[in-house]
Design a protein that fits this description.
binds magnesium ion, 10 helices, elongated, about 250 residues, 6 strands, 2 domains, alpha/beta, Rossmann fold, six-stranded parallel sheet
Length: about 250
């Protein structure tokens, strides 16, 4: 049987008649970026492009990367998520290094940062292998909600490009994903947290806060992760870890 109490297991195990077990949940909330499609990859490509540029200007690559990370992860509350937030983080970094050498930021630099932002903004949002068939399977059995965070326009554009919107009853873009946001979702969507599971790639944004709010959590562990999203999983028998979206059809 599906057993959430064996939280030390990397894979859940169930045997026998799964029909009744699979009715355990009524609602499945699903994260978008790096859960349904690749996202971090594009930020990393953008980072490489920026670091190459700064290196050519005579700055130390590692030091620039340190400051970019600092602005990108430590100041998110001020600068926001998404391509615009990353552009601001690059601007802060550029300012920091240019001012040390009394260099001026000109049209060339502004265009360069704008183009990097556009590159991230226009990422293709191609679903991971098996996502569509798995969503098709899940939609027949559960109420599905897409729960993402960031800039509303940017996130909704990604959902549109992905072609996945019709699998979900609703797409919800939160400005952040902390415990309080999940508690508000429980109220606004009239959810029973004991019958609700949150699926996502981030312990910090998807799993820990949702479980603290009373829901279950399924972590899809990705090899590479944005530093901001790194956090130890809380100890809970309500959490399962899997390694691909396709595996959901086995456990839900
Ligand atoms: Mg994510």
């Amino acid at each position: 049987m599906l057993n959430f109490s064996d939280s030390h297991l990397e894979y859940p195990c169930y045997t026998g008649d799964t029909k009744s077990e699979k009715k355990q949940f009524e609602v499945v909330l699903i994260d978008a970026d790096d859960t349904l499609w690749e996202n971090y990859f594009y930020f990393e490509k953008a980072r490489e492009t920026f670091l190459n540029f700064m290196e050519k200007q005579g700055f130390d690559r590692e030091e620039v990367n340190y400051y970019l990370n600092h602005f990108d992860t430590k100041r998110l509350e001020d600068i926001g998520f998404g391509s615009n937030g990353f552009k601001k983080a690059m601007e802060f970094t550029l300012n920091h290094f240019y001012s040390k050498k009394n260099m001026l930021i000109g049209a060339n630099e502004k265009n360069f940062l704008f183009n990097i932002k556009e590159y991230i903004y226009n990422q293709p949002s191609i679903p991971y292998p098996g996502v569509k068939t798995t969503l098709h399977y899940l939609k027949k059995r559960y109420s599905l909600f897409l729960v993402t965070k960031g800039d509303s326009k940017e996130q909704l554009n990604k959902v549109k490009r992905s072609g996945l919107a019709s699998y979900f009853r609703e797409t919800i873009v939160l400005n952040d994903k902390k415990e309080e946001h999940y508690r508000k979702l429980i109220v606004s969507l009239k959810l029973n947290p004991e019958k609700t599971v949150m699926v996502g790639n981030s312990p910090k944004s998807d799993i820990n806060p949702a479980v603290k709010a009373g829901m279950y959590g399924i972590l899809i562990k990705r090899e590479k992760q944005w530093a901001y999203e790194e956090e130890e999983l809380i100890k809970s028998d309500k959490i399962i870890t899997i390694h691909s979206f396709k595996e959901l059809a086995r456990i839900l």
